[in-house]
Amino acid sequence: MKSESLFERAQRVIPAGVNSPVRAFRAVGGVPLFFERASGAYLWDADRRRYIDYVGSWGPMVAGHSHPAVVEAVQEAASRALSFGAPTEAEVELAEMLCRLVPSLDQVRLVSSGTEATMTAIRLARGFTGRSVIVKFEGCYHGHADALLVKAGSGALTYGHPSSAGVPAETAAHTMVMDYNDSSGLKALFQEKAGQIAAVIVEPVAGNMNLVLPAPGFLEGLREQCTRSGAVLIFDEVMTGFRVALGGAQARYGIRPDLTTLGKVIGGGLPVGAVGGRRDIMQKIAPLGPVYQAGTLSGNPVAVAAGLATLKLVSQPGFQHRIESITQQLVTGLAAEARKAGVIFSAQSIGSMFGIYFRDAPPRSFAEVMQCDRERFNRFFHAMLDHGVYFAPSAYETGFVSAAHDRPEIETTLVAARDCFERLS
Ligand code: KE4
Whole domain around residue 324: which residue ranges? Predict the structure, then answer.
């Protein structure tokens, strides 16, 4: 296999042969696939084998791979310039579109990744409130900024510990890690530490411990506690933005965060992130205010062109409804095939995101995610890969459907799943 020889070559010059850990297939075992081409719902690997793609580059490819309108926009922008390091009309147009589509955005600052967006949101919240403590949730991932690579402390109300080497304990000490969907725990926390909390950052629909939906009242409780205490509520919608609904999870659940971070879809596959929200908070960012933030390629014209073209496609009438319906057909079909084969399995979807679980019901918390049968997922992952169906190479990742997926792709996936579930039972 060409992927094998490429992987050997890659490992000589790139740590673990990959530029982002999850790509190394260490969670599922085996040799990571090296891809060469993508179009619509499909990928082709270095051996020219075709796969139906349910990773979608971890979210960005919501319109389908290499959509002609996006490729054309990128080519046109690139033919004029690759980068200025100066303002352009296109980035104003993108900022205006984001403020129009996402209810809570008064203003927005473009950056080049989701990590940059969340790192900036944390610094903004601390600069705006003058407080230091950040609250996050077990199982939620917000990129790899030091303050967010923190795992739960020993007691429910104790400060966090680094979840990565290289993060100083003093940094982690300002971050508290709570249980996702634990509204009562949150109330206790605010009773004890309200005046110290700069911000709560949350994935309003969790997508980094597989897919976990917010329990009724959880997001409302966050909003209420933050309003009452003056803490900044940050919705990390890097993944959920334009996937859960056109205006993000905040539009679907009717909750108005103070800051929102975005990424993935808004770059259409090229590097774009964004942090935005209440004007009074955004006015604190340099060069207007004392909170520094900068980026050589922020608002890059080629990346912005890809993002604008993608957002124009996702905001077309009927786009969200159609992609949500296809995603529902996928998860309903998978659950039916597993039931027929007698395999303990469940699945759910929201918008164009879906979760598959080797557990009798979709998990509602990090602890329940840990009850999923990971070994069975890994066998299912490889069996489906042999059938030309590419799921995320980890039991703890969300799946993504694009507008290019239709009945033929769903049917092919379900026929493959039927065989794989039978082999598992
Ligand atoms: P990036 O820095 O990778 O652009 O974004 C970080 C990030 C922030 N917030 C949320 C909710 C995210 O899901 C992410 C990144 N998501 C992962 C997928 N689980 C990216 C894949 C990877 O790390 O290679």
Answer: 2-66+317-424
